[in-house]
Amino acid sequence: MTRNSSRIDRAARRLLSSIAGTRGARVSAFALAQMGGAGEALMEAGLLVPHGSSTCIVASDDLDDTPVAVITHPLTGRAGHLGNWAWQDERTSERRRVHALDMAAGARRVVAKLDCSLGNDPVPYLDDAALDFGTARLPRRAARVGIWVARGLTRPEGFAAFRELVQRRPSDGLRVVIVLDPPGRMPVPFIRGHELVALEDVVEHEDGLAVAPEILAARLLKGPSHQGPVWVSGDGGVLIVHGKWHEFTGGKQKIAVAMLAEAWLDGDPVLPVARILEEAECGPSVKRLKDLFGGHPTWREVIRESGSNCWLEV
Fold first, then answer.
1. For FRET with 48, which of 33, 202, 251, 276 sits at 20 to 30 Å CA-CA?
2. Residue 96 — very low, low, confident or very high, per pLDDT cuts 50/70/90?
3. Cα–Cα distance between 286 and 156 in angstroms, integer?
4. Average confidence score pLDDT of the chain
């Protein structure tokens, strides 16, 4: 078994997701030792690499696994900690070693089965917390979609940095973001133009890390398993309200639907009609949402308009 072809099973994938969701995507050698073969599998695959050492060690006396502070020996000046029996030299402790997620290597494994335009040379952002793999064509979709791989989005500060990034680099069409964080840790807010997909939902289990194109295409069409009262695809093409599925094909309708769903999800569901028509670049002949949605089954069922305002009826 070669270093880059090592098989990643479910336990190793979950460990990688757990590490990816942390602030620095790092883990101590002591913690890895408690994970059975999962940590070893990730290291053999080249996905966890050495990253220096920690500034604390684990006390070896009293069978205590609590990290303790490293201090300077009062006579020798060497760093360590004062145990009950003897001075413990922190430089000889392998438990101090730290491993970090090689985000580029992990992300390449994730998109290995997608024909990405930047598959060999992704563009990194946010200190490698997000990588842009260009675009890819997915089954049953005519237009190519953007493909990013990101981590740390379940942390509020990580998501805030990511939202600021995509505002600076808006998507041209739908952008799919494969999120490495553990699914269910916390809900990730909706970002218009982006479909944030948990790796666990679209992974090819035979490989353990690679996204399966057919599964990803189905996920984009049907949405996640847990949708809440309202779910909308990143491009506004699919709206699900209380489990009922609605599809939109027109570009202007998609923009309007995404704006309405985003407003509802943000807790301020009422929007001015003029704002939607302007952002959707509707012509002068379209003065109301009725002109845009009048022939669609969702009109007045879930999309409502009164005077100068509009909203989703949920």
1. 202
2. low
3. 39
4. 84
